[in-house]
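Annex B, item 7. Sequence and structure tokens for protein A, then protein B.
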Amino acid sequence: MYEKDFENWLKLKEKLNNNNPPFFNEREIWWCSVGENIGDEENGKNKKFLRPVLIIKKFNKNICYAVPLSTKLKENNPYYLDMKRLHGKMGKISNIQFKKIKSSIKELF
């Protein structure tokens, strides 16, 4: 069983928060400190908790939508969160709203 290294991830996170963001563009692949994640989510590797990511959408010089890359194929949807992150249900949107949102997300790709 892999033991989580939250202590070192928290130390690195504090350093990363003080960094200036690099210049990046859509379609680029970058090493990214994704961290020591919760439960069954994919973790970064090595002392910098790194994984490769593909920049899908650049919103501004500080924020982007990126997808982690992997050498292993996932049987199910590769975009997942561990349910341990959830803290309380806020509500539910209508089917019509949900379809519009899903359609908008597909347009990003």
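Protein B:
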Amino acid sequence: MSKPDLAIFDLDNTILNGDSDYSMINYLIDINLLDKVAKLKNDEFIKDYQQGQLDLNQYTNFALKPYIGMTRKEVNEVILPFVEKIIEPMINIFALKLLHEHYEKGHEILLASATNELIVKPIAKRLEIKNVIATKVEFKNNKCTGEFIPPSALGEGKLKLVESWIKDNKYKNFKGVTFYSDSINDLPLMEAVEFPKAVNPDAKLEKISIERGWQVIKLPII
């Protein structure tokens, strides 16, 4: 029996109208787990990400610092209210329509995000997506160390993690695979799949998509 077609979705600025990592930092400032100086650093990091120049080691140290020493239960006590209050209004209903079109065709759905798993997994649960790739976070003795487990799910790292997922789930290759993303950071995976689709793409990805004849989807943001 053949495997169902696979549809891969990026999260930030694809399914969401905004960036979950960036929004999480601002939320941590609002609840006083980070100081206001972090807002300036957060703004600098998001600019680097948008240009495809993010130093993930630096960003991970910054983004995971508030969770150091926390158990997963304690982390969830911070993140679950964030998902409800901040992420829920960011979900693009038109992106959900794309998701449901694949579900209706019997396709497998994979959420693949560079954001750390502490944030992505609760969002995936809210979206009812069971297959998730995200940057893995290190825990020792059930406590967060503030480090990530390589490879990160950014750029080439996302491609490697998806390749491993495909192998583990008995897919032969990228034939028939669709990938939706907004970001130039996802170019390696966009180049690998049979059906790359640029969703509200950044300027760099839109230029490449037009040059290569990839579909560009402009979803309304409301």
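Comment on protein B: The beta strands are 6-9, 108-116, 131-140, 143-149, 178-181, 195-199, 215-217.
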